Amino acid sequence: MAEMSEIDRLTSEHFEARRNGPVTLEAGGETMALAIAEINAMGTSSREGGAFSVVFRGPREPVVEQAIHRLTFGADERADIFLVPLGPDGDGMLYEAVFT
User: Fold this and answer.
1) Binning pLDDT at 50, 70 and 90, where does residue 8 land?
2) pTM of the entire structure?
3) Residue 22 and which of 37, 42, 75, 78 are 20 to 30 A apart at CA?
4) Phi and psi torsions of 23, nearest 5°
5) What distance, in Å, lies between the first and last C-alpha atoms of the chain?
6) Is the separation of the CB atoms in 34 and 64 below 8 Å?
């Protein structure tokens, strides 16, 4: 069974280490593959390593709504993360998660 990550302990380095690995989003009983497209520093915060955002790229369709979604990284780690759809780029649909 996959281990749940504590959201307040996630850092930009955590996502950087998973940048080239599989990410799966679960929504409405369906799954879709995502990729980590960008990791952006956003300044200081009380969070270890400072505030940051992660931009994920998924398929152009279907578009998932702004909400908390379960993401699975590899085969053994899950986290419930608030994602906001940013819109499409040339390769798919972009979603952003902000950690402050």
Assistant:
1) confident
2) 0.92
3) 42
4) -130, 130
5) 29
6) no
